[in-house]
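Support request from a user on the community tier.

User writes: "When I paste my structure tokens into the form, the page sometimes reloads and wipes my input. The last time it worked, I copied everything first. Here is what I submitted, just in case something in the input itself triggers the reload:"
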């Protein structure tokens, strides 16, 4: 991603890379060592994305949009909003309601009713409240990006059907006791490929200029 971004020109077409990682903890630029509780035999990789520590592993769709924001015509804040919207629309395809939480990038679901459309009290507010409240919620998609010369890399990870136990070895995204879920946990049976196809389509749609 770094090589692609460093070498691209104003004429380089945008790309979206989809992959599935072997088990790995990745630490963002804001990452703190004390959020790595017990990594054990899972490697820890330092990255230059934003955010703190998260886990990647089999059964998770990781998407890396490589977008020229200047050419696309929108800024970083809207870029993040568009990625989150693509995830929300992908979840809706599987009859799951994704939510944003004030002060905490990523997408969350209600643990007691993942299909409920009722708005969250924790939703982002116009007053700019930044105190995250995860009561009753599970995080199903994590987001961490980097922008260099108006071009993006790193991206978003959607949990499909994975071993979630490594999340207990960290404070996910820097939050103690934040519960992490996947589609399988909330009763949605879908293959990695189907989830990847839906997410890539939604990202292509919502990240378009």
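"...and here is what came back when it finally went through:"
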């Amino acid at each position: 991603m770094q090589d692609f971004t460093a070498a691209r020109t104003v004429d380089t077409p945008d790309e979206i890379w989809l992959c599935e990682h072997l088990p790995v903890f990745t630490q963002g630029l804001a990452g703190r060592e004390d959020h790595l509780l017990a990594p054990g035999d899972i490697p820890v990789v330092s990255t230059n994305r934003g955010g703190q520590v998260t886990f990647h592993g089999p059964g998770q769709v990781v998407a890396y949009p490589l977008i020229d924001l200047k050419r696309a015509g929108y800024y970083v804040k809207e870029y993040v909003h568009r990625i989150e919207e693509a995830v929300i629309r992908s979840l809706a395809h599987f009859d799951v309601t994704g939510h944003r939480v004030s002060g905490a990038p990523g997408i969350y679901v209600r643990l007691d009713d993942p299909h409920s459309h009722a708005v969250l009290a924790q939703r982002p507010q116009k007053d700019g409240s930044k105190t995250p409240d995860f009561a009753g919620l599970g995080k199903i998609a994590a987001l961490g990006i980097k922008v260099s010369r108006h071009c993006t890399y790193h991206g978003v990870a959607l949990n499909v059907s994975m071993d979630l136990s490594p999340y207990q070895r960290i404070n996910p995204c820097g939050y103690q006791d934040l519960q992490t879920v996947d589609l399988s946990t909330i009763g949605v049976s879908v293959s990695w490929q189907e989830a990847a196809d839906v997410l890539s389509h939604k990202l292509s749609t919502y990240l378009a200029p």
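Agent notes: The reload is a front-end session timeout and is unrelated to the input. The mean pLDDT is 95. The helical segments are 2-7, 69-72, 76-93, 192-206. Escalated to web team.
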